[in-house]
UniProtKB/TrEMBL annotation, chain A:
Taxonomic superkingdom: Bacteria
Family matches, as InterPro entries: NADHpl_OxRdtase_5_subgr, ND/Mrp_TM, NU5C-like, Proton_antipo_N
GO biological process: ATP synthesis coupled electron transport; electron transport coupled proton transport
UniProt KW keywords: Membrane, Transmembrane, Transmembrane helix
Biological source species: Fodinibius sediminis
Protein name in UniProt: NADH dehydrogenase subunit L
NCBIfam families the record matches: NDH_I_L, PRK06590.1
Domain NADH-Ubiquinone oxidoreductase (complex I) chain 5 N-terminal: 68-118
Entry's Gene Ontology molecular function annotations: NADH dehydrogenase (ubiquinone) activity; NADH dehydrogenase activity
Automatic annotation (TrEMBL), chain B:
Species classification: Bacteria, Pseudomonadati, Balneolota, Balneolia, Balneolales
Name under which the protein is recorded: NADH-quinone oxidoreductase subunit K
Keyword Kinase listed: no
Gene for this chain: nuoK
Database matches in InterPro entries: NADH_UbQ_OxRdtase_chain4L/K (IPR001133), NUOK/Mnh_C1-like (IPR039428)
Membrane topology: Multi-pass membrane protein
Transmembrane segments: 14-33, 40-59, 71-92
GO cellular component: NADH dehydrogenase complex; plasma membrane
Signal peptide (from-to): none
Function: NDH-1 shuttles electrons from NADH, via FMN and iron-sulfur (Fe-S) centers, to quinones in the respiratory chain. The immediate electron acceptor for the enzyme in this species is believed to be ubiquinone. Couples the redox reaction to proton translocation (for every two electrons transferred, four hydrogen ions are translocated across the cytoplasmic membrane), and thus conserves the redox energy in a proton gradient.
Quaternary structure note: NDH-1 is composed of 14 different subunits. Subunits NuoA, H, J, K, L, M, N constitute the membrane sector of the complex.
Amino acid sequence: MFTQLPLIILVLPLLGFLLLIFLGKRLPRKGDWLAAGLLITALALSLSLLISKLAGQPDESFTQTFRWLAIGTHTIHFGITIDNLSAVMLVVVTLVSSLVHLFSIGYMKDDPRYSRYYAYLGLFSFSMLGIVLTSNLLFMYIFWELVGISSYLLIGFWYEKKSASNAANKAFIVNRVGDFGMFLGIMILFVNFATFSFKEIFDLVEAGQLPYGSTGWLTTAGLLIFCGAIGKSAQFPLQVWLPDAMEGPTPVSALIHAATMVAAGVYLVARMFPMLTADALLVIAYIGAITSFLAASIALTQFDIKRVLAFSTISQLGYMILALGVGAYTAGFMHLVTHAAFKAGLFLGAGSVIYAMHQVLHAQNDHHTDAQDVRNMGGLKSKMPVTYYTFLMFTLAISGIPLTSGFLSKDEILAGTLAYSTLNGHWLLPLLGFVVAGMTAFYMFRLLLLTFHGNPSDRERISAIKESPLVMTLPLIVLATVSLFVFYSFNPFGAADGWLYQAIERPISMVPNMLQPVDAGIFEEAVHHIHGTAMVLSILFALSGILLAIGMYYWKKIKAENLVQRTGVLYDLSFNSWYFDELYDRIFVSGLFLLTRISKWFDEHIIDAIVNSSAWVSRGIASVAGLFDTNIVDGLVHATAASADRAGSMLSKIQTGKIQTYLVYVIFSFLVLFILFI
Amino acid sequence: MELMITPWLAEPGLVHFLIVSALLLSLGLMAVLSRRNVIMVLMGVELILNSANINLIAFSRYTSLSLEGQMIALFVIIIAAAEAAVALAIVLNMYSRFNTVHLDEIDSLKG
């Protein structure tokens, strides 16, 4: 069961992709029922798989491999692994994916490339499930690139828009940078261990084998593979592509750029965890902390509803990476799961709002107003009650308010960072973590208040807004429901008692003893010790963020404009995303141009000079040869010609032109011959 | 005795024919080389041809070649007729081009 069922789950979306890409337009309703149906089937199968796994053999790991190809003495396998980690991820991916399929039926219904959209979603779901299920690094990489390409296709889905196709290119190219590192990491491992399989690599590391015999290379390999996660999960310094990726259709943002694909980086780190050394994990933790702080600070000042959510996603992904880095493995993965639900919900809620705005703007023939700018909204609460209440639920969850799923996972992460700092002294990590928790609460409530409360920016427009159809609100309700704590733990203040926490256990580190991260037992002890403090602190930070937001945007006690002026440079930094795009433009794009200018100069002044001087030399040689030619060779030729000419003119005297003279010659010669030979 | 006095007068033999033929050839050559008028030159050519015919027939009569020489002579006559036609056409063209039939005036091939 644990070997065939995952294969079926994996193949279902691929089947949908193939059917829709070839037959999509000919199917009734362009095949949306087929795509959604296949995904819901996959969800049902995944759920049954998860339940029977957890109920039956929760501690086992099932792997099945097929020979894929043999090169020389190496055989490369395609394999699938079912353990608790992949079983949970299967449910997360198929759940979000099937809800997004449903939501898209409403959101995309007038699109001319409707069936292709569903085909791409199918391709994406297939690749994502591949990442989740694969048992070796090579196939991880292959599926990794497949999600990359389907992400590219979906970001650039409305490719007629220049900004959309640019964003697709940017996402793909920035990811390529990270994937390059990942590939190097995989190759280091393969060259040394001659295998791609996770399990075999871990076994070899445990047996004391190290790449090139050095622990430094083990850390390097781990960090290089982490580069792939930096790219896919939009971590600092490759976070720039994710905000631009919001050019894609909003349900796509929910599926790919919030819940699943960007979490693949976190999943990769979780998979590789047993071979990551303490040094590598420390780097990972800092990258996560920096990312989450940077992104949260940017989200504070954005006005585009989807951009706020995009930066919030980067920030939350940073949290997960931070958690894995400090060794709070379960908390990081749990945050992945809870975040997938409430962030997908936030995006779908935003999609619902944008859809409603679009309908009204379209009806009013208004093509200038930005349907995504929160300044054009306000007061939508009474018009879109379902969207509002579900959005509120998601906002509470992401802000880490008790009784929500987000509280459970975020609280565990913060407790983990705090415990880590008490053990290792890296106090910056929990500090950033708590500050980000406050910032998250602030910008999410700011978004909620600006969108749904307050005075409508345009009374006529807002009064025409209608709630989205059931096919769009149903996924919101489902996601809002699973954002409640009960689905993860029956104790609203302790994730550790829940099934998820029990099922996902931090794997035993395989690296040599001196490089081991903090022992799981000691770490758990520290977490347990500090849990209460962390909880109180995290609630405090969240509440102060919320209060500040309400004070600014609901009670209007604090003028936002004053704060903007007061913080001047900081505001500019935040509003312009810390000028990262400009910085990269300045360094890489301009750097490239500078390089081309240098090359051009080199070409013009060095290469051309060489060419020109060699031309000059050959011209000199040629003119000497020319002199020889005209004077000696031509002289000989001319002399021959002249002598022939002179002989000719002498002999031409014989040619009188009179036929009878010739006849005399003929007869005379004949006579001579006659006399001579007879 | 008789044979000693009269052989070449009494009974015309091969030699007689050859002498006549040689005379005719010389006359023809003379005409071809010395006449200015191209028609006369052509007539000289005919004389040469006929001298050859006499030779052929004479050899056919006095040697063992039997009729073959006469056959060739017939061919020569026919070809001479054809040649005369072609030659006269050339002469006509020549006249229309140079306005003369005098060979010494036509020397555009002079070197």
